[in-house]
Amino acid sequence: MAKGILRAKAKAKGDNTVVKIMAKHAMETGNRKDKSGNKIPAQFIQTLSVAHNGKTVMEANMGAAVSKNPYLAFTFVGGAKGDELQMTWTENTGASATETAKIK
Amino acid sequence: MKIIKSLLAGASLALVASITQAATSGNTLASVDPEADRLALQSFFQKRFPQVPVDDYVNGIYALDAGSREQWEEIEEFPPYEFDVEEGEVLFNTPFANGKSYADCFANEGVGIRQNFPRWDESQGKVVTLESAINQCREANGEKKLGWKKGKIAQISAYMAYTSRDNVFDVQIPNDGAKAAYLDGKQSFYTRRGQLNMSCANCHVAGSNVLIRADLPGPALGHVTHFPVFRSKWGNLGTLHRRYAGCQSNVRGVSQKAQGEKLSNLEFFQTYMSNGLVVNGPGARK
Fold first, then answer.
1. Which domains does chain B possess?
2. Is domain A6-102 given the CATH code 3.40.50.300 in the classification?
3. Which ipTM value was assigned to this complex?
4. Cβ-proximal residues to B71 (8 Å cutoff; 6+ apart), any chain
5. Contacts of A69 in chain B (CB under 8 A)
6. Given this model, what pLDDT does residue B249 score?
7. CA B138, CA B146: separation in Å to the nearest integer?
8. Residue of B76, B77, B230 to mutate for A, most A C-beta atoms under 10 A
9. d(CA A29, CA B235)
């Protein structure tokens, strides 16, 4: 499997799970121009949702104002060591993928 | 004025010590003794911060200031330079147009060699830093030179440092030519520059862990082990010479040319001062 764009670290702490995600993404706003003056088309992550056992635990709506290589961290109740998280991202271009990470 | 006063107080407090201890040997080719200088700098910091073990100085200011360290450890849990190391690895392994690659230019195929740079090159009669060796390699293989301060060169350098982590710095001064370069670097380090009339030593020997506005300058010991560095201020990766340029303009001076003789010698001096410490680059700093 090709390496995805998301790097995630999830750690179970007591009843909670702390999740940290970084996405490798240029987050082009669509307002920048290249050297010859043409606009670079917008390409950014629009939504990112994280599910645990089929239940969505985090959903983020992002836009052009979010920085390159966005970093997100959140905590949710539940989750145990060895569980899997499904992380789904969608770009404004329509591209999307689901990547997984294990809770440690 | 309180901040400036605290810096000056710190500086004057340690000034006597810095002259007598942080550089015991002289400033001429005959009297300079690099090894004595290195040990003097170590003992200076050990006296100043007795609770900090020498090995911890590779972490810069985070070895001295607990509050900053906490933030930094949080950052290091998800290192911002991770992607750059990955990209550096790809760049490093991409062959040139003539079929050769970076691995052909370096000892041990370029893996685990960061600790030997910068080194004195007798045939060229000058100090060769890792970044200049990368560009020399490109030129020898008919490729264009990369920019010195950020981007690809920093990524390749980051990858090479990453493969050398935990190796002990071992910069050699084999002859008088190298000693002269060391001496030049040492003089740069202790020479005041710019409108603010400050030397590197003002902030990083006497003034380390003393507030300058909201920032704490790091200690000169272990100063260069973590380069190239991902600075939060830059938002990307940069080389040591990029940082030097920033430092020099901070004291309102004209910054010297990246990879020029002066800055290469300064790097040579500073890295020699960190001999015996481990490579921990690429690093993350404020």
1. 2-78+175-285 (1.10.760.10), 82-162 (1.10.760.10)
2. no
3. 0.72
4. none
5. 80, 83
6. 94
7. 8
8. B77
9. 17
